[in-house]
Each structure stands twice: as structure tokens, then as C-alpha cells.
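The material for today's practical consists of a large collection of protein records. Read left to right, the C-alpha cells trace the chain's path through space. An example says more than a description, so a record of this kind follows:
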Amino acid sequence: MIPNLFWKSKIPDKLPDSMQEVVNHLKKSKDKKDCLRMAYDALAKKHVGCKIYQRFFDLFTSDVSYLWYVKQQHCTGVNYLLRVLLVKSKFFKDEDITLNIAPLWCFPIHQYLSVRVSDDKTINVDPWSARLGTKFGDYAHGFHLKS
């Protein structure tokens, strides 16, 4: 099975130094939404989404020390990195973050996250598809995924 697709991999205790620098910056956020936006932007700039047949074996790792340095990422890898950043920022608990799968008529299936920023507000995020034009607060619906 693919880690982080249907279940959440453990948040690691230790992060690569450059990833910890991003976490330290996120800790200065003014609130949860600001933290989420900054983490999303950092990952959308750092990583490029790849297709299922590219970097196939990367689907089967949740080694943050490896994933952090790989530019081309699958949605599950980028989302795992986002979860790690958010939880390590201390603004979020892992329970604030929900894994979602785009409608199954989309093949290959695609994952995005829903992040609770307050008691009554949740924001969908999909940094994997940011370069496809998906905006903060949305996710790549099946018909948006390009081959």
C-alpha cells in the first residue's frame, strides 16, 4: 500500500535542517490560516507535481529526509510534507488535517487535504496542483488533472 494515501504516516521527530528552518518561520505566523498559507506557498514553490508513472517508487516512502529534497513529487508526498510542516509549527494538531481523495472517476486517484483553521472553517489545499492553476482553498478535481 501507498503510505499517506488512505492513512497518515507518523510525524517524524527530527527534520532535515532546511525543513526545520521553514518550521521555525511558520512558528512566527499570526494565526492558523496564515501558517497554512505560508506552508502551502513554500511547498508549491519547492515541489512540482509528477504523474503516477514518474518516480513510481517514491509513492512507497514516507521518509521525510528523502522527500524534502525531491523536487518532483506525487500528491501524497507533498501532502505528507505539508502535514509535517503544519503539525511541527504547533499551530495544528494532526486531527485538524483530513486526507481526501478526489472522485474515483478520476484515474489515477488524487489526494488533497482539508485543514481546520477554526471551529467552523476548513480549507481545502492541494499544493501538488498549484502549478496546474489550482488556487489556495481548492483542489484538482478529476477533469483538471492533465496527462
User: Anything to note?
Assistant: The chain has one domain: 17-144. The radius of gyration is 14 Å.
